[in-house]
Fold this sequence. Notes:
CATH architecture of the largest domain: 3-Layer(aba) Sandwich
Number of strands: 15
Number of helices: 18
Helix content: 40-55%
Number of domains: 2
Strand content: 15-25%
Distance between the termini: 26 Å
Oligomer: single chain
Radius of gyration: 22 Å
CATH topology of the largest domain: Rossmann fold
Amino acid sequence: xxxxxxxxxxxxxxxxxxxxxxxxxxxxSTIGELKIAVATGRDWTAEQWADARKEFSISDIFHxxxxxxxxxxxxxxxxxxxxFLNTNGVRVPAKEAIRLExxxxxxxxxxxxxxxxxxxxRRFHWPRSVIDVDDYPSRFHASAVAQAPWILPKLxxxxxxxxxxxxxxxWRERFSVLTxxxxxxxxxxxxxxxxxxxxxxxxxxxxxxxxxxxxxxQRLGMIGDFTYLPNFDGVSWFVRECWPAIRATHPTAxxxxxxxxxxxxxxxxxxxxxxxxxxxxxxxxEIASWSAMIVPTRLGGGTHLKVAxxxxxxxxxxxxxxxxxxxxLVHERHAWIAADRESFVRGCDALLADPVLREGFASEGxxxxxxxxxxxxxxxxxxxxxxxxxxxxxxxxxALP
Length: 401
């Protein structure tokens, strides 16, 4: 099987998109002959290119250019025409995009990571294709309506959710097979043999020595890009609604944030005991020192890689129902799932105080990770998706007059 993988994110970054694309590429390289083409709006560093080429065959590189959505007709089409492809204000220049034809002619399946990349090539129909939906935009915008601060942002979110629902409704027409990250999304995209679940996963880590003893340090932590609205909104809610009560019971407890803008955010957030650590090349020892990882998100459309990482690293989780979406977590077995402020505080208090509870969550969470969210466990889902794409393509070819 000849597989072309079109992706965007540098494989060496720690973002969810980078982790997903890197590990999907590794899986696909064991299934067939894999070639990778990168379409990006930013420059990868020389180190990132060297790391990618050391492991994979990079066949081509396409660069986005800005494509402003100008004029009333185009702005109208952006909202109401599901076949209008300038959805993100970027495109691959025509003189570069023409090179894609040769790559497509020499593959059996093309796997595209997200619709933004597909639309940047200004192609509506993608034969023999898998679209990796990951985080679908209509759900993101719909979930953000309630958190918008006033009426105009709310109306923009409602408009965007409406526009993306119309675009998502034609994805089955555009692509052969769709992948989603959670079972709940299968029905939204029509179900059947052309919609497959490929969960977000994490690479099984090697055991590490904690930066300090969790029983003594009393640390809660969160990892993520804090310029990303769901993370920013979630940690802001936690600090405002939960952190004062937790500190009243555990006055030496600290909240430790890892990731983009965590240092600046820690300075801006009210409250004591909040530490921003920035980017850490090796997060293992720091996370191993936490009494619990918090996932207080309330909006977004996909699943959170940080949950898979927490399970893999054997750190107890306190999550909102939204944060747990896409993972088969059982409350008080694999994680503490908190639907409101009071429950979130109780979960954090319990894990800060009880080492037996922490070990129970860590043990059961680790078992769940090995069974469902390691990349070894996810590989059969990737294989089924590729086979479904080939089968659909054969049926489509036979249906031609």
